[in-house]
Design goal:
The chain has 310 residues and is mainly beta. The protein is built from no helices and 22 strands. It is globular and about 60 Å long.
């Protein structure tokens, strides 16, 4: 079966609850929503995969189907758990991630983390005892004199594979004496990468930088990062600290979280999602793929307070 992309935008001060109230307020009688109610019919076809030449596909175990590989550009997929420090220096086997279940996921966009930074969009509610792992691909130019820099408290490491390969090589583990490492890039392309980070000592610090051509170390730019969205379940929810998708909160970009719960049930959004701050004026954009099991005409309805677009 093929999946089609879906985009949902919600904007306003609050979202209507099943009882008709708004998030943070008492239930009231159902009221018409002049700028929010949308109901339209759409037809979906299911072309055979053999009609053309299939490209890279991912097995979707939840639907027992094949899904075309779709990439989310601008970041790496970050999974997190709280209350567990999965790695320590001298014990950084990536296979440890298979022994735990992620509590949340989001898009890491190259930012550094420090004390006081909120990581709840990744499922981490206790930064003093946590684990975060990043997966995706980074674009590297050929023979560019590429260097990776890594700083962390407690432990972090970087593994890299050649384009089109899943054979990873350890590039760097955080160490004050050797904070950077040279990366051999024989060809230009998207290099699979995985990064592990764990903290268990109270203070938190994480910084992953790079440079090429002898330039100073600096943060990753978004056009050099991508992740295979077909390997995560849910929609990518971007929360803006303004009503009309107008940027993020002061000093913080919009927060990108993989929302794994269904979009069908009404939601109260209490507490407010990461990125909304404490002000009720915020908006969110959901982007993902809609699974259609049978060809036909369907009625799609969006209902919210204050407004939406699908």
């Amino acid at each position: 079966m093929r999946c089609g992309p879906v985009l949902l935008i919600l904007a306003g001060c609050g979202f209507r609850s099943p009882a008709g109230g708004t998030a943070g307020g008492a239930p009231d009688a159902p009221l018409p929503i002049p700028d929010g109610g949308v109901s339209e019919s759409r037809s979906f076809g299911l072309p055979e995969l053999t009609a053309g030449t299939p490209q890279e596909m991912t097995v979707d175990a939840t639907r027992v189907s094949l899904t075309p590989d779709a990439y989310t550009y601008g970041g790496l997929i970050a999974h997190g758990i709280t209350g567990t420090k999965l790695w320590a220096h001298g014990s950084t086997d990536w296979a440890a991630t298979s022994t735990v279940s992620a509590m949340g996921a989001g898009l890491w966009r190259g930012e550094s983390f420090g004390g006081g930074d909120a990581l709840d969009a990744f499922g981490v509610t206790n930064p003093a005892m946590m684990t975060l792992w990043l997966e995706g691909e980074v674009w590297l130019d050929a023979s560019s004199g590429e260097r990776f820099g890594l700083g962390a408290d407690d432990v972090a490491f970087i593994d890299l594979a050649a384009p089109g390969s899943t054979s990873y090589t350890r590039v760097l583990e955080n160490n004050i004496a050797t904070p950077t490492a040279t990366v051999q890039t024989g060809v230009a392309g998207w290099y699979p990468i995985r990064v592990g980070f764990a903290n268990g000592g109270g203070a938190l610090q994480f910084q992953f930088t790079h440079s090429e051509g002898g330039n100073p170390m600096g943060p990753w730019t978004r056009e050099r990062l991508r992740a295979r969205a077909s390997e995560v379940n849910g929609t990518l929810r971007t929360v803006f600290g303004h009503r009309l998708l107008g940027g993020g909160l002061t000093g913080q970009p919009p927060v990108m979280h993989v929302e794994s719960s269904g979009l069908l049930p009404m939601q109260m959004f209490a507490p407010l999602p990461p990125g909304a701050g404490t002000d009720s004026n915020w908006s969110a954009r959901y982007f993902g793929q809609l699974y259609v099991a049978q060809a036909g005409t369907y009625t799609l309805q969006i209902d919210s307070d204050d407004g939406n677009r699908g």
